[in-house]
């Protein structure tokens, strides 16, 4: 699973991604900005297409990894899988740094 990265600093809290995710994988925080329920994301990517400010990217196309987490788990059952995914993002981050 590729999943998505959310650039919360760019988000204008329009709510479109939350409405359009067919898996209910995005929930609003107290500011109305989306948080990804990581284990519910099934790579539909509807959120990317509806975002008016390009605040969501496929993980493979992320330019940078946000410092503050943009995800949560809905069940601890997926913790190991999430850690593995985060590890793969770090490698990607290193590659981006190497290229720049
Ligand atoms: S669609 Fe984009 S701008 Fe709107 S809430 Fe989602 S991430 Fe934020």
Account of the 3D structure:
With 100 residues, the protein is an alpha+beta fold. It has a single domain (4-99), classed as Alpha-Beta Plaits (2-Layer Sandwich), CATH 3.30.70.20. It is 31% helix and 15% strand. The strands form two sheets. Strands 2-3-5 form a three-stranded mixed beta sheet. Strands 1-4 form a two-stranded antiparallel ribbon. It is globular and about 30 Å long. The mean pLDDT is 91. The chain binds iron/sulfur cluster (SF4). Iron/sulfur cluster binds at residues 6, 11-17, 33-34, 50-53, 55-56. Iron/sulfur cluster is lined by residues 6, 11-17, 33-34, 50-53, 55-56.
Order of helices and strands: EHEEHEEH
Q: Helical percent range?
A: 25-40%
Estimated structural class: alpha+beta
Mean pLDDT: 91
Number of helices: 3
Spans of at least 5 consecutive residues with low confidence: none
Stated plainly, the CATH topology is called Alpha-Beta Plaits
- How much of the residues is beta strand, in percent? 15-25%
Shape annotation: globular
The oligomeric state of the chains shown is single chain
- How many strands in all? 5
Q: Strand order, main sheet: write it out.
A: 2-3-5
Q: List cofactors, ions and other ligands.
A: iron/sulfur cluster
In the residues, how many domains can be counted?
Answer: 1
Rg, nearest Å: 13 Å
Main sheet makeup: 3 strands, mixed
For the record, the CATH class is: Alpha Beta
